[in-house]
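Long-time lurker. I teach an intro course on protein structure, and each term I like to show students one example going from raw sequence to a predicted 3D structure in token notation. This year I'd like something fresh instead of my usual example. Would anyone be willing to generate the tokens for the chain below so I can use it in lecture? Attribution to the forum is fine with me.
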Amino acid sequence: MTMRGGGLSARENPFAVQRVERLLVFEPAWLGLSWEEILARLGKLNYRAAVVGPHGSGKTTFLDGLEERLSKEGMSVTRLRLNDESGAESKRQAVERAGAAGPKDLLFFDGAEQLGPWGWWRLNRAARLAKGLILTQHRPGRLPTLFRTRATPAMLEAFANTLLEGRDAGARPSPEELLTLFQHHRGNLREALLGCYDLMGRR
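-- Reply from a regular --
Happy to contribute to a lecture. Here you go:
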């Protein structure tokens, strides 16, 4: 079995990518809001809003939590996603899917910044019959801001402690090492946690 940087195998390493992905969630309570407040604000915005935050700050997992709560209220959610590698065909398909949404459908669009002004106009127009359109963006604009996600060193430490539960204190990354990783990855929690993989491999 391949090992990175030391004696721990991928199966033994608490920061293996599968463990990190299963753990990562974003709770508005970390930043002083409740889901009830989020849902109330979303309703006031007529279900057309943006979730804003830097890369890796929890926008997608925030949408996961929001979808779970909206689904319990009987709403149907369709997820659209674009990234840096999405080409013209992927963008065309996103517009087509938005146009197929009806008055009971909510569209979650992850990666709205990948569309230029013309692409955004087309998608927004295509989605006009949908119940709502919720975007993720790195910067505010296009739709009113519903919520701003941001990561903190305390969040990183809390996630790391969960993954390290039951481990000897001497085998854990120190608070200083976690802070260094947080700063190096510019607050991207996922990348910072995956950076702990090599630290644990060297223990």
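Some talking points for your students: Residues 1-6 have pLDDT under 50 and may be disordered. The CA atoms of residues 98 and 203 lie 49 Å apart.
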